[in-house]
Amino acid sequence: xxxxxxxxxxxxxxxxxxxxxxxxxxxxxxxxxxxxxxxxxxxxxxxxxxxxxxxxxxxxxxxxxxxxxxxxxxxxxxxxxxxxxxxxxxxxxxxxxxxxxxxxxxxxxxxxxxxxxxxxxxxxxxxxxxxxxxxxxxxxxxxxxxxxxxxxxxxxxxxxxxxxxxxxxxxxxxxxxxxxxxxxxxxxxxxxxxxxxxxxxxxxxxxxxxxxxxxxxxxxxxxxxxxxxxxxxxxxxxxxxxxxxxxxxxxxxxxxxxxxxxx
Length: 263
Hints:
Blueprint: H1 4-14, H2 20-61, H3 63-66, H4 81-113, H5 132-155, H6 159-172, H7 176-181, H8 187-200, H9 202-221, H10 227-245, H11 252-256
Helix pairs in contact: 1-8, 2-4, 2-10, 4-5, 4-10, 5-6, 5-8, 9-10
């Protein structure tokens, strides 16, 4: 069977087909298998990360700062050059460190699709995997570009342009992590390949992404906590899209799990 990179070369030259309803149905069926479990994990870890984050902020900036609402409304154009650097570096590191956690939900979707057992430890699969550095690096590169550009435009009081660039970056790179963990690509190859794949079917993929946004909005309206149980849909959708594109790869990972670092 062709490697992922070779398949992407073929796609670059000839494109690929993607059916909205088929992908959506596959994603929804997968979502039903992981929704409750993944939602509860997100709830627990959101509370845990919130507590840890608050403690860190209190230690770094002091409790008085946290009690001041103005502290959380500071904008980049109010920061000095060195503070901007700290802000960007902190944001990039935060995103990169958490990215393997998100990748764990893709692993959960993978297991659910194959009726394999998954548990809490599944979420931390890629923190102990050789793919950790690839995921970390790819996310850091994407985050650095997105945060730097959006910060630049915000300083220029062109917030809307910054938001659009950030959203477009997220859209064209959302297949990066699946390409690393399922396609075993390197960080840069995964980023560029994500752009190629999405550029070949931008309308259908955008439609699928919009369904996720709508679901998240509905979840947010459901007393906010509902969003924690709709977020897993984004992982099921990303997983379904990946395997809809690489249709011929679906059998292989089962036989190669022990040899690859998917586990």
